[in-house]
Amino acid sequence: MSSTWHILGAGSLGSLWACRLARAGKAVRLILRDAERLKAYEAAGGLTLIEKDQAQLHAIPAQTAHDTTPIHRLLVACKAYDAEHAVAQLAPRLVHGAELILLQNGLGSQDAVANQVPHARCIFASSTEGAFRQADWQVNFAGHGFNWLGDQANPLAPEWLDDLSDAGIPHEWTPDILTRLWRKLALNCAINPLTVLHDCRNGGLVAHHCEVATLCAELSELLQCCGQPEAADGLSEEVERVIKATAANYSSMYQDVRQGRRTEIHYLLGHACRVASRHSLELPHLERLYRRLLEHLSARGLPCD
Ligand code: NAD
Ligand code: KPL
């Protein structure tokens, strides 16, 4: 198996992973949207990682999906709503037994991707690292966070985890990746939509304690019902803790809406409501929250999926 890391999507997380792997001497190839983006990237001369006020340029080779080299390992670093289509474009290049690492937040996109590539192994990831871009081909990283990786179909850890250690990417292999993803989804559902609707920082939700607690109770019921009792354990307390610990921050969904960007709502609150309905579970507050958020988005001309 080739040890090259193909990285699909040179946005915030994709660039962060690409720069750290390249810095550690690993072979990395970026896969960009189209020839125009490739030309712009080549003109910039590479990706710049800004960490602790230090900027470092990494001249990582790039290509588009139309390149013909086979892919053995693919880090999928696009948004949840782009992942299925982006991977479908690359399916012919994936060798039998190729490994995909799916960095998407929420749930639903991972299964959609896996269905596109039955000949590949799909490893799910849940990341709490925070990266953002102020300009094209540049990524800022504060240096905090962690990555959990796992494969619910195969508990065997891949050998390339050593590459992550060499690159200083904090990570742990876990057989309970779905529990991690469900827990993060529940946290995001309890916090992010309310920050949008109340137009506040995370800390502003302290004033809406009862609303948050009611949502946590319904989310816990959902997690129990869909076989994720561990993800439900102490959810309300953790949500309160996160609200206080990130009081000064604007949630990622708040920032998306503020900047007129599409949100990942379909894979967060949308997924929670769809799973509840599949289990004939009535969660009136969660459903009402979803409806209010969809109205809020469509009033601003933002996609609801
Ligand atoms: P982003 O929007 O910064 O980057 C996504 C990139 O994918 C964009 O550059 C986009 O052009 C590219 N892309 C989309 N379709 C493509 C295609 N067909 N071919 C090539 N490139 C394509 O997104 P992000 O912030 O890096 O987030 C990626 C995922 O990681 C999301 O699900 C997000 O929720 C999750 N996540 C992000 C962070 C973070 O700090 N940014 C933290 C944790 C989890
Ligand atoms: O992960 C988050 C986000 O902003 O997306 C927080 C606010 C920490 C939890 O929902």
Summarize this structure briefly.
This protein is 44% helix and 19% strand.
Describe, in plain words, how this protein is organized in 3D.
- There is one protein chain.
- With 305 residues, the protein is α/β, with parallel strands linked by helices.
- The chain folds into two domains: 5-175, Rossmann fold (3-Layer(aba) Sandwich), CATH 3.40.50; 179-299, N-(1-d-carboxylethyl)-l-norvaline Dehydrogenase, domain 2 (Orthogonal Bundle), CATH 1.10.1040.
- The protein has helices at 12-23, 35-44, 80-90, 109-116, 161-166, 177-197, 209-225, 229-232, 235-245, 252-258, 269-278, 284-299; strands at residues 5-8, 28-32, 47-51, 54-58, 62-64, 71-76, 94-102, 121-127, 131-132, 138-141, 147-150, 171-173.
- Strands 5-2-1-6-7-8-11-12 form an eight-stranded mixed β-sheet, sandwiched between helices. Strands 4-3-10-9 form a four-stranded mixed β-sheet, with helices on one face.
- The longest helix is centred in the middle third of the chain and has 21 residues, at 177-197.
- It is globular, with a radius of gyration of 19 Å.
- The model has no long low-confidence stretch (mean pLDDT 97).
- Bound molecules: nicotinamide-adenine-dinucleotide and ketopantoate.
- Ketopantoate (KPL) binds at residues 187-188, 191-192, 202, 242, 246, 251-252.
- Pathway: Cofactor biosynthesis; (R)-pantothenate biosynthesis; (R)-pantoate from 3-methyl-2-oxobutanoate: step 2/2.
